[in-house]
Design a protein that fits this description.
This protein is mainly α. The chain contains nine helices and no strands. The longest helix has 20 residues.
Length: 195
Amino acid sequence: MTAPGHILLATAAVGIVEYIFHIPVNVYFLIGVTLGAVLPDIDEPKSLIGRKLAPLAFMLRLFNLKHRTLSHSIIFALLFLIPGLFLPYPYNAIVLGIGTGAVLHCVGDLLTISGLKYFLYPLKTELHLLPEKMRFRTGGLVEQVVILGLVGINYIIYKQLNLINVLGNFHGTALHLPYLLETGYNYFIHLVPKH
């Protein structure tokens, strides 16, 4: 999956869990989930996070860490989830969110044709969540349709949870969900080839 797909999948999953199970999710956790949703791709220098943190991505390459290996494993997520249990608020919410986002990043990649080979790092076991005919190519048209669906799901969920206004007014920041959803929609429209 591409970065927008990972972010939208992770935030939709968190919103669905909150909506169904009434587990409160705060803005700090959502910020962590958003970061965690793209962080595993730090091992790919051409990824969004790899370009933003180029020196770190380059260092990982020096250690011969290939894409979708250690950073796409449960071990990587646990590096955030376990310490997050012991940190004070709000740091625990952010760090637990990063770990959760990293797990949900892996879920997104498990939907693709490539799947994951090192989710149980260092054991090499190819994993997929979908039957072969339902898997999609990263960045392909099917993923773009999935992204559009996730934009809609996120809007509906966060509107129901009344988090859109909360996120929009969070300490006067630029976190404005309707704008983000509109941006996601515009991103999709520009990617779909016109016939």
